[in-house]
Specification:
Two copies of one chain form a homodimer.
Chain A: E1 2-7, E2 17-22, E3 34-49, H1 57-63, E4 70-76, H2 85-102, E5 110-113, H3 123-130, H4 140-146, E6 155-163, E7 168-176, E8 189-194, H5 200-212, E9 229-234, H6 243-263, E10 271-279, H7 282-294, H8 296-303, H9 309-318, E11 329-332, E12 335-339, E13 342-343, H10 347-357, E14 361-367, E15 373-380, H11 384-391
Helix pairs in contact in A: 1-2, 2-3, 5-6, 7-9
């Protein structure tokens, strides 16, 4: 057996990791806009990237590296370095070469970017910014703030895992993301650090498993970005590992951060869990759950706190999977509003359902009544604020 | 050769067709809420319905009829008669039986409904409403108004087709639709009448061909409704027909009405044509064109009149089809803003692009630069008004 205990140090929870955020003048008002994560030992790296075919320069740069260990990630906000072609990759080389030449401790640094698409990196500002880094500092919140774009709060978490033999390891992470979220992956970045002694291949395997029900189960707007990145760095400093415990702790980290992104969904006022059961198989349940979390009509009904179950039924029917009016049931939390072809809805039920919809967090369950397929997705509502943020993002 | 001339009589343009709208008290303020289309001759019927698995009672009722000719369609707004199970179909039978018993001229009437999902039809009001119908009246605009829901204007069109031999026929239509529009089909209804002498099978074949690039090429919000219906009635009164002319006229009718729906998209301020070329095949071009017209980030950028071509590139990349940064080109009308990996965009170009985006109608072209696949889709922007309309639709 093992114990998983929440700690407060984010990406600095794992032994030997340092992080901070600085202001390089990319954002206005001297807000922090560049962060680093540094490990005093070289790390194995596992990664998941966007499925967007227009994947950004940092992802091209990473993929071109082949096998390597690293001890440093440089992250900037305000510019995504996407759709910038070969020049975008050359810009990264130039920035990282400057960094290595001024700082001998840094080995094989990675770069990660988020912000506007289609604009060259402001290289000089970034190179100047790296001179403000102090690699002996542990400021995980400052780092998490520096990578925010439309996020309204920073997103970090960490756990200490105590194993039966008395050994222990740590795992911590920071993430950003609030819009262009439909991870497969989305305009999200997540950096996870651990001192567990875990091989690259095992770590990659576990990361691939965990991403399915965490980042790949959320949606803010159904748009998959060019820059989505999850990087997991392990420096083995603890000398401890247990696969089940590691997987559970990693799930807790990624699940928490995934829901934090939805909770911070642009203009969102509620976090909704879509619990789909009774589908022909898990894949069909996933299609339905994601159709619900992406439906504009469902999202605006949520914003209006209108228990419009008809839109939910219509979205299930339009999802392109096996579904029948006669076998479908729909509930808001525990309140069943439609049951296998029976119109249960009346005024008293509407009052109860409307009260549930005023909660900041609730569950919409759809039982398709066919077989055992199930999937849980997470989404939010869409209101005026989403339009405001996205009608004028670049200015 | 033949000539196609626009006329002004909508569904009453074809000889022998009558139509009107009345107020049965379903909408507030005595607004018209029930319409009929009546033909003095029995008609062959061709049809296209929603692909939504939760298709509404009127569609079940239609499909249960088998082979038949009809001379009457009863249409109500304000209630979709969807998710109402067997009772919903029985309600239709009851209404139509009452109608036939009071009016001997009516043969095999059809019913079509649009409005809120999941509420039983107000049968008595509807039966009382049918008593206000005068089958000798030709009021196509009044009928078109009666079937509106969130539409802000009525949608009708008609053409006279003059053939080389001196014969002629007419084709006219009315439609409704402004939201829940992602026709495959969508919360749209379209009723087309013709006096052409055309067989049921030929008419169905042509209708199926034409729907692909008209109603199935538009999107307001990516939500496919339970009630989408296109009905085409032909009474053969003109005794004239020419397949090419008929198809061209039908395309003109359906294309016009499809664009009218997008122009009336809930809260929409612009109608945008997405012209995708250079895809691996037509199907992949269609996927990209529809991804663009459905993307929330593209739609909100349109609303903000922000020439954010990066979001367009990102949406192309996320569409799941073959696409390369190095072969993609993007234009706003004639203005190319990104060309095969080259960042053309600068401040002068931004000013020009922003001016194009202020137009009520413009084209966004994406050449994927791979092969010859092409597709044109139509969409609109998404602003505060969309949220307002849909956050509180039922009240």
């Amino acid at each position: 057996m093992y114990k998983i205990i929440e700690t407060l140090e984010g990406v600095c929870a794992a032994e030997g990791f340092f992080a901070d955020g600085v202001s390089a003048g990319l954002k206005s008002n001297n807000a922090k806009d560049m962060a680093f994560i540094y490990s005093e030992e070289e790390c194995e790296v596992a990664s998941v990237f966007t499925t967007n075919k227009m994947y950004a320069a940092p992802i091209k740069h990473f993929r071109a590296k082949g096998e390597f260990k690293t001890n440093f990630i440089l992250i900037n906000s305000k510019n995504a370095n996407a759709m910038t072609g070969k020049l975008g990759v050359e810009d990264i080389d130039e920035v990282l070469n400057a960094l290595v030449s001024t700082c001998q401790e840094i080995i094989n640094p990675l770069m990660s970017s988020t912000g506007v698409i289609g604009v060259r990196l402001p290289k000089q500002k970034i190179i100047e910014g790296t001179k403000l880094f102090d690699l002996s500092v542990k400021e995980p919140i400052s780092a998490a703030k520096a990578i925010m774009t439309t996020d309204t709060f920073s997103k970090t978490i960490s756990f200490k895992v105590e194993l039966e033999d008395g050994s222990s390891f740590n795992i911590g992470a920071m993430a950003k993301g609030a819009g262009m979220i439909n991870p497969a992956m989305a305009t999200m970045l997540c950096f996870i650090t651990t001192d567990a002694k875990v091989s690259k291949s095992v770590m990659q395997e576990i990361l691939d498993e965990v991403v399915v029900n965490t980042f790949n189960a959320i949606s803010v707007d159904g748009d998959t970005s060019t820059n989505d990145t999850v990087l997991l760095l392990a420096n083995a400093k603890s000398n401890a590992f247990n696969r089940a415990a590691f997987k559970e702790a990693l799930f807790k980290v990624m699940h928490f951060l995934a829901l934090e992104m939805v909770r911070d969904g642009e203009g969102a006022t509620k976090l909704v869990t879509y619990n789909v059961t009774g589908a022909r198989d898990n894949k069909e349940a996933e299609v339905v759950a994601k159709a619900l979390s992406d439906s504009l009509l469902v999202k605006t009904a949520l914003f209006g706190e209108d228990p419009n179950w008809g839109r939910i039924a219509s979205t299930v029917g339009a999802a392109g999977v096996e579904a029948y009016e006669e076998s479908l049931s729909i509930s808001f939390d525990e309140l069943c509003v439609y049951k296998k072809g029976e119109l249960l809805f009346n005024e008293a039920m509407e009052v109860k359902a409307a009260a549930i919809m005023k909660l900041p967090r609730f569950t919409i369950s759809c039982d398709l009544g066919i077989a055992d397929g199930s999937f849980t997705a997470y989404g939010c509502d869409l209101g005026y604020e989403y339009v405001k943020i996205n009608a004028d993002y670049r200015t």
